[in-house]
Structures are given as C-alpha cells and as structure tokens.
UniProtKB/TrEMBL annotation:
Pfam families: Form_Nir_trans. The keyword Metal-binding does not apply. Keywords: Membrane, Transmembrane, Transmembrane helix. It is a multi-pass membrane protein. InterPro entries: Aquaporin-like, For/NO2_transpt, For/NO2_transpt_CS. It comes from Chitiniphilus purpureus. This is Formate/nitrite transporter family protein.
C-alpha cells in the first residue's frame, strides 16, 4: 500500500516550495507559467474533442457527456504538477502558507500571482491560436466546434455573482487536487489525487480562470461573436476573483492556521520522499 505524506508535513513542504517560488527570478517563473497555461489548454482541447465529438452521447445523456468531459480534462493539471510547471490558481493557496507565517511579504505574494497569471495567459492564448486554430481543429466542419461555442457563450452570459461563486468552488477543488497530488509518494498516487477533484469541478461546470483563457478565446477564433470586453468583464474578472477567494481564503489560510510551524510539525517516516 502506498504511503502518503501527513497533512502537517505536507503544509510544511508547501511552505518551503512557496518560499522558493517567491524567490525565483521573473523570467524563470514566467516561463514556468507559460508552460502551465499551455498544459491546461491542451487538457481543455482534449476534453473538447472527446466530449464535444460524442454528439450521440450528448443528445441522449448530457450528464454522462459532462462526466466524460471532466474525466479527460485533468491531463493538463497532472502535467503541471508532475513536470514542475506553474499555475496561478494553485499559487492562490500555496503562497498563503508562508505569508501567514510571516516568512514572505504581501508584495512578494502579489508578484508571484501577477507573473503566474501573465504566463498562464500567454500560454493559454498561444495554445488556442497555435494548437487549436492553426491546426484546423476549430473548423466549422468539426463536431466539437459548436459544442465549444455553446460552452463559451454560456460562460460569458452568466450573472457576475454566479461566475464568482463558481470560481470559488472551482479553485477550492483545484487547490485540493494540487495538495493531494503533492501528498502521494508515487506517480500513480499523485495522478489519482489530482484527477478526482479536477474531474469534479469540470463536470459540475465551475469556472476556472486559466481554463477560460483557452476556452473562450478559442471559441472567439472559431467565430463566436463575443467581444474581448465582454469576455473580460463578464467572465474573466469574476472567475479570477472567485479563484482567489476559493484558493487563498478557503484552502490556503485555513491549512496554514491548522498546521502552524510550531504546532503542526511532526516526524515523517524515513521511507517517504518529498514529491
């Protein structure tokens, strides 16, 4: 049976990892974040092709189609964690641990968040343009193109508060997925730990700002009549704010408080390696 890191040990590991990330040179963090944006976009593209191409299943059983969409989407998140790329949404929780312990300053947290978001944006937009649009995968003849357009149109035309709340839940699950991924000793355990929460938030139709940086621009490239202003104000802003609240206030801070540096530290079995 695979062993896992205890929660208190894991929080200390995340604290050290977040401090290290806060000290990275901006170009390095930006490149890591660009890769993270690309990986998330590729997971989204795979989900579109698989679930959006299952037109018969979509008509007969839309719930099962949502499950299929959610089941394949996490490959991007798995790649982010296993390859050491960077994702803004998981940083929302991770950076709160050393901030709570007063080991880094608020301006350092803001710097990580901004660089991470910028890199994710560049990577996701590049993937939408280069890997989805230029390859012809968004042609009108493809069965998943109307699926993508309906998905993006729905995301843009929801009330601000609805998108915000969906963003909160989305990043709670994303951060839980990232922390579960860090907790496992072996690669398979890490993959399963990441997969389950990510599949859940995607199948439920929650709002992940970085994923939306791929889905909605890709739909716009495919002909969806949505302006950049509508995309930013009606989806990206509330989704991002919700992601911040869900990650920082509902995952990062509670665990930083529960497992403080003095109260939460315990010895770990010697046969468990850090992820």
């Amino acid at each position: 049976m695979a062993q896992i890191l205890t929660p208190s040990y894991l929080v200390n590991y995340i604290n050290d990892a977040a401090r290290h990330k806060a000290g990275l040179h901006p170009p390095r963090l930006l490149v890591m974040s660009c890769l993270g944006g690309i990986y998330i976009a590729l997971g989204g593209l795979l989900a579109l092709v698989v679930a959006g191409g299952a037109t018969g299943l979509l008509a007969a059983n839309p719930g099962l189609d949502k499950l299929l969409f959610g089941a394949v989407f996490p490959v991007g998140f798995i790649a982010v964690v296993l390859t050491g790329a960077d994702l803004f949404t998981s940083n929302c929780a991770m950076q709160m641990v050393p901030l709570f312990r007063r080991q880094i300053r608020l301006e350092e947290v803001a710097r990580v968040w901004c660089l991470s978001y910028l890199g994710n944006l560049i990577g996701a937009l590049f993937a939408a343009w280069g890997f989805a649009y230029l390859t012809g995968m968004l042609d009108a003849t493809q069965p998943w193109t109307p699926y993508l357009q309906r998905l993006a149109e729905h995301k843009v035309h929801q009330p601000f508060l609805v998108v915000f709340i969906k963003g909160v839940l989305a990043n709670m699950l994303v951060c839980v997925a990232a922390w579960q991924g860090y907790s496992a000793k072996d690669t398979l355990g890490r993959m399963v730990g990441i997969w389950a929460p990510v599949m859940t938030f995607v199948a439920l139709g929650m709002e992940h700002s970085i994923a939306n940086l791929f889905f909605i621009p890709a739909a716009m490239l495919a002909g969806l009549e949505v302006t950049t202003t509508e995309f930013v104000l009606q989806n990206l802003v509330p989704a991002t704010l919700g992601n911040l609240v869900g990650g920082a206030l509902l995952v990062g801070l509670p665990y930083a408080w529960l497992y403080t540096e003095t109260e939460g530290k315990v010895d770990q079995p010697s046969d468990i390696d850090l992820p």
